[in-house]
Specification:
alpha+beta, Elongation Factor Tu (Ef-tu), domain 3, OB fold (Dihydrolipoamide Acetyltransferase, E2P), 3 domains, four-stranded antiparallel beta sheet, 28% strand
C-alpha cells in the first residue's frame, strides 16, 4: 500500500474512533438519564425505642444485644410486686363497693318506705282537719282541738318533707345513673388500671425486630417512659437513595429498582420506588431571626441538588439479611415493580 492509501486508511480509522466515541458518549448519556443510577444510597429500617409503661427494677431480662425477636416475645420484666399489691387492694375495694351497693339499695328502700308512711300520715291529718273544721261552728268541738289538728297537719307535712330529703340523699349516695352505678364503675376502672400496670411489668416485642443498643442488666431501675434499648423493625426494609434533580423526570413512584448492596455485590435485590422527597434543607435563604440569610457571592459552578428517593426492598432472606446503614448502589428501571410489598406515594 502506498503512502496515500495509508494516510486515507489512517484518517478513516481516526474518523471511526471519534464517531464511536461520540456514539458511546451519547448512548451512555441516554442510559444514564433513562435509567438513573447513584451510589449515594444506604439501607434503612424503622427503629422503635422500647420504654416501659411502669417504673421499677428489672428482675428478668430475656434478650441479648443483636438478637432477633418475634412479635409477642418477652423482652424483660419490671418488678410486679408493688403493682400486684395495688391490684389486690383495688379488687378488695371493688368487693367493698359491691357490698356497700346492696346496703345502699336497702337504705333507699327504707327511706322510700318512711316517705310513704309520712305521706299517709299527712293525708290522714289533712282529712281529719277537713272533717272537724265544720264542727267548730256547731259547737261540737273546741277551738283548741281545731288548733291541735292544724298543728298535727303542719307537723306531718314537715315530717314528709324531711323523709323526701332523706330519700333524695340516699339516692345520691347510691350514685346510680340508669343501669350504671358510678361507685362500682369507678372501682372497676381502678381494678382495670391496676391490671394494666401488672401487664405492663412484662414488656413484650410489638413486632419482629432486631434488638440493638442493649446496655442494661438485671437489677437496673427502669423509669416509666425512658427508652432502655431499641428495636430495628424487620418487617419493612428500604433504601434512601439521593438522586440529582436532573433525574427527577425519569423517577416516579411505582417504578422498579435494581439495588446492589456492598455486603452482597453479586446478588442484586429488587425494589420499588415508594416516594420522592419534597424538601431538603437549604443553607442559603434560611431565616435568621426575622430576615432571610442570603450569601453575598455565587459560585460559577452550580451543582445539581440531590433529593432522597425512598425505595422499598423485597423481604430479606436468612442467608442475606439486611443491616441498617449498609451502602447500596441503585439503578432505576422503567418498568413497574408491583411484586415487592406495597408502594404508596
Amino acid at each position: 500500500m502506498d503512502d496515500g492509501g495509508r494516510r486515507f486508511l489512517g484518517r478513516g480509522l481516526g474518523v471511526l474512533i471519534v464517531a464511536g466515541a461520540v456514539l458511546t458518549s451519547v448512548w451512555s448519556w441516554w442510559l444514564t438519564y433513562r435509567h438513573p443510577r447513584t451510589d449515594d444510597a444506604s439501607v434503612r429500617a424503622n427503629v422503635v425505642g422500647i420504654a416501659p409503661h411502669v417504673s421499677g427494677p428489672i428482675v428478668e431480662l430475656h434478650v441479648v444485644d443483636n438478637q432477633l425477636v418475634h412479635e409477642g416475645d418477652l423482652l424483660f420484666v419490671v418488678d410486679p410486686r408493688p403493682y400486684q399489691a395495688r391490684l389486690d387492694a383495688s379488687r378488695a375495694a371493688l368487693a367493698l363497693a359491691e357490698s356497700d351497693l346492696g346496703a345502699q339499695h336497702d337504705a333507699v328502700a327504707a327511706a322510700q318506705a318512711d316517705l310513704d308512711r309520712r305521706t299517709v300520715e299527712e293525708r290522714y291529718a289533712q282529712d281529719y282537719l277537713h272533717r272537724i273544721e265544720p264542727l267548730l261552728g256547731r259547737g261540737f268541738i273546741t277551738a283548741d282541738k281545731l288548733d291541735d289538728a292544724r298543728t298535727k297537719l303542719r307537723s306531718a307535712g314537715a315530717a314528709r318533707e324531711s323523709a323526701a330529703q332523706e330519700r333524695a340523699r340516699a339516692e345520691k349516695l347510691l350514685a346510680q345513673t340508669g343501669d350504671v352505678n358510678a361507685r362500682i364503675a369507678a372501682a372497676r376502672a381502678d381494678v382495670r388500671s391496676a391490671e394494666l400496670d401488672v401487664e405492663y411489668c412484662h414488656v413484650r416485642a410489638p413486632f419482629e425486630a432486631w434488638v440493638t443498643n442493649l446496655n442494661i442488666a438485671v437489677g437496673e431501675y427502669a423509669r416509666q417512659g425512658d427508652q432502655i434499648f431499641a428495636l430495628v423493625d424487620n418487617r419493612t426494609w428500604y433504601v434512601i437513595a439521593n438522586f440529582r434533580e436532573t433525574f427527577m423526570p425519569n423517577i416516579r413512584p411505582g417504578l422498579g429498582a435494581e439495588v446492589f448492596l456492598l455486603s452482597y455485590p453479586h446478588h442484586p435485590v429488587r425494589g420499588v420506588v415508594q416516594g420522592i422527597g419534597w424538601a431538603v434543607h437549604q443553607q442559603n435563604g434560611a431565616t435568621v431571626g426575622v430576615l432571610p440569610a442570603v450569601q453575598p457571592t455565587l459560585d460559577w459552578v452550580r451543582l445539581a441538588q440531590r433529593f432522597p428517593v425512598r425505595i422499598q426492598l423485597e423481604p430479606p432472606t436468612a442467608e442475606r439479611p439486611y443491616r441498617m446503614g449498609a451502602t447500596a448502589v441503585v439503578t432505576i428501571r422503567d418498568q413497574a415493580a408491583s411484586s415487592v410489598g406495597t408502594a404508596s406515594r
